[in-house]
Design a protein that fits this description.
The complex is a heterodimer of chains A (535) and B (154). Helices cover 8% and strands 36% of the residues of chain A. With 535 residues, chain A is mainly beta. Chain A has three domains: 140 residues, Immunoglobulins (Immunoglobulin-like, Sandwich), CATH 2.60.40; 204 residues, Cathepsin D, subunit A, domain 1, CATH 2.40.70; 154 residues, no CATH class. In chain A, a hairpin with a 2-residue loop joins β19 and β20. Helices cover 23% and strands 32% of the residues of chain B. Chain B has one domain. The chains are: A mainly beta (535), B alpha+beta (154).
């Protein structure tokens, strides 16, 4: 008998609705009865979230898809289930919802423990089948997780950056947990090793509170400086000792480069900055570099390694790396023992120190304003860095694997989060715009396919990807920072072929990449020893 | 230790990885005599001159695995160089007068740190920063010998 009592008001509402809307688009059908509470989406999945931090809200829409007013009792919205305490819901839904109307329920996730966290969202009402439910899942990142973001980069800068992953790192005076500054927009780079921070950024953010201790050249009281050269210029700065917090992990007395720090006498050595008086591009400023620093977490443990530790200059000349810089004389290049070089910071952690997992979301369109992900310290050491089905590729001692593309093999191929595009030589058209003449501008979106092979094992993987015109990307999607289909030539002209196929940042989007450090054993059955990659 | 450290200086003169002595230009478009001088200043474990049909290939390798190749025409002009080195080679020496083009482009705008390339009528240059080294090639299109394809540069 109850349904009949509902029928009368339903008919009235339906008539009014039809009259008001000119007969179009009603969600009710003749013969349906009463209010219907519909939740969409029917399930909610949160991206991985740091322990004890609160996510951005995800919205569930509550719509009355019935044909009578939906009545919500007090405390209509509840969370139940094993991990209900990890979730919180707020709503703009009132005490009733007219037929066809909808309101929002916002859910936030604050993981209280590791692993997968589940709960159920319940909405009680007068609708049949009450409560309506939506399943909620979320995963908690462990204490080995470092949140990372792709965005337009730090300020000041001359132009926004594209496809650069950034993290924040806390720098402290050695021995202090309060004389610290959190520096944002440190670039995460799997193609280099060691932590670098621009002195100007550290000063701007931390004032004079952070006092790095200068490292000294072996057996002297002279400060140690380092030159870092790039394809387009150089940086120069002291080797400094600081305490840092990366994610939740504290590292004391870590050797880093204080980029842009200046030596007392003689300026930057000519074999770093210039040749015969011609200055290479000076990239000692945030504005010219595009980041406040670099977090180099690639496969090697030091930025230079074996060669810089060799003490026979006849066999191993040392210019271009480390320099001893006395107060009253020009700098001279020289060897530095492995342990005193700038260190890959993950390798210095007490645990989760055998490698790293770079995990970034897939981007479905041609551009996205930002993207957020994680670097997880360690491989197969925590629930959040297990390799699963990813395939292992052994790298040679220089860090190369091999790529076959078309009829060409690129023996010096690299997987490098610090490259902001796929860089490879092909017949695609290079852009004419001088601001990105380094990119491809094909007339149409172009599908490509290449095969990656391990250097020390027989693993292969076919990688399919798309190249879109940088003209399109940088105009139609000009305010974005993430471009999954950005590519450019390695040689700049079709008539020269580089030996390198550079799998840059787009490769990482939606593809977890595991970076196993040198000399670390691969997982059982992987057949590799570091340096190796899995994806 | 101090003296050991400083003692390197003399031996290092003009050498950056496999860089060439600043005074001894073996730059693009310059003479082969300079290449020979460079060999003497390098700490090369092996130096080969390979006569090819239309040019000579001068290859210098060093203990640290660095390698520079200079391509020299029969008339004695360096028309191309390639390198695979542990540190950035002395580009001023390798590129000769065309070094200014490289510097001008890098200073004109934000450029990529890992991959750099320019292509003009007088200089085609590419440099890749590798995990622990550099590779690159440079050539002057107008100086290529008859029948030589820049794709053959290795």
């Amino acid at each position: 008998m109850m349904p009949r009592q509902f029928l009368a008001p339903v008919a009235l509402v339906l008539a009014l609705a039809l009259g008001g809307c000119g007969g179009g688009g009603g969600s009710s059908t003749p013969g349906s009865t009463g209010p219907i509470a519909t939740l969409s989406p029917a399930s909610l999945s949160f991206p991985m979230q740091l322990l004890a931090t609160t996510s951005a809200a995800r919205t569930v829409s509550l719509q009355n898809t019935g044909n009578a007013t939906l009545t919500l009792p007090a405390s209509a919205i509840t969370l139940t289930g094993a991990d209900a305490a990890d979730y919180a819901a707020t709503t703009d839904c009132g005490t009733s919802l007219a037929a066809g109307a909808s309101c929002s329920i916002n859910v936030k996730f604050t993981p209280g423990a590791g692993g997968t966290r589940t709960a159920t969202l319940n909405v009680a009402s007068n609708a049949p089948g009450s409560p309506a439910t939506a399943a909620i899942t979320g995963a908690a990142a462990g204490d080995n997780a470092l949140p990372v973001t792709i965005d337009l980069g730090p300020t000041p800068q001359s132009t926004p950056t594209a496809n650069i992953i950034y993290a924040s790192v806390k720098f402290c005076t050695p021995g202090s947990t309060t004389a610290c500054a959190v520096v944002d927009h440190i670039q995460v780079d799997t193609g280099s090793y060691g932590l670098r921070v621009f002195k100007s950024a550290l000063t701007a953010i931390g004032g004079s509170s952070v006092v790095p201790q200068l490292a000294q050249a072996a057996g002297t009281s002279d400060p140690l400086f380092e030159c870092v050269q790039y394809a387009d210029g150089y940086t120069w700065g002291s080797v400094a000792v600081v305490d840092v917090q990366i994610g939740t992990r504290w590292l004391t007395n870590l050797r880093i480069q204080l980029t842009g720090d200046t030596n007392a006498t003689g300026g930057v050595p000519g074999d770093c900055s210039s040749h015969a008086g011609k200055q290479l591009k000076n990239e000692n400023q945030v504005s010219s570099f595009g980041a406040n620093g670099i977090l180099g977490i690639g496969n090697f443990l030091q930025d230079c390694g074996f060669y810089c530790a060799q003490t026979n200059p006849a066999l191993y000349p040392q210019s271009g790396n480390y320099y001893q810089c006395p107060a009253a004389a020009s700098c001279t290049a020289g060897p530095v023992a492995l342990g005193l070089q700038v260190q890959n910071p993950i390798s210095q952690m007490a645990t989760d120190n055998n490698g790293a997992l770079v995990s970034l979301p897939a981007i479905s369109g041609k551009g996205a304003a930002t993207a957020s992900g994680f670097v997880f310290f360690g491989i197969n050491t925590q629930p959040d860095n297990t390799v699963g089905a990813a395939k292992w590729f052994g790298l040679d001692s220089s860090g190369y694997l091999s790529t076959a593309f078309g009829s060409t093999t690129f023996p010096q191929s690299i997987v490098d989060s610090g490259s902001n595009a796929y860089f490879f030589d092909s017949t695609l058209t290079t852009c004419t715009n001088a601001n990105y003449s380094w990119a491809y501008c094909p007339s149409a979106s172009t599908g490509e396919s290449a095969v990656i092979s391990g250097a020390t094992n027989s693993a292969t993987a076919t990688i399919n990807f798309t190249v879109d015109s940088a003209d399109t990307l940088f105009t139609t999607y000009g305010n974005d920072a993430v471009y999954p289909n950005l590519a450019g030539p390695a040689s700049g002209v079709g008539s020269v072929f580089s030996n390198t196929f550079d799998w840059g940042l787009p490769f990482f989007l939606g593809r977890p990449v595991y970076v196993l450090f040198e000399a670390q054993p691969g997982p059982s059955g992987s057949g590799v020893t570091g340096p190796a990659l899995a994806f | 230790m101090l003296n050991e450290f400083r003692g390197l200086t003399a031996a290092l003169a003009g050498v950056a990885g496999l860089a060439l002595a600043p005074a001894a230009h073996a730059g693009l478009g310059e003479g082969v005599a300079s290449v020979a001088r460079d060999h003497a200043t390098l700490h090369a474990r092996a130096t080969n001159v390979v006569p090819m049909q239309a040019y000579d290939l001068h290859e210098m390798t060093s203990q640290d695995g660095s390698r520079v190749r200079e391509y020299v025409t029969r008339a004695g002009t360096v028309f191309a160089v390639t390198f695979n080195t542990r540190t950035m080679p002395d580009l001023k020496a390798l590129l000769g007068d065309r070094y200014a083009e490289y510097v001008a482009v890098t200073n004109a705008r934000r450029t990529n740190h890992k991959v750099f390339a320019i292509s003009t009528p007088s200089l085609v240059l590419q440099i890749v920063k590798l995990p622990r080294g550099f590779s690159g090639s440079a050539h002057v299109p107008t100086l290529l010998p008859e029948g030589f394809s820049s794709r053959d540069l290795r």
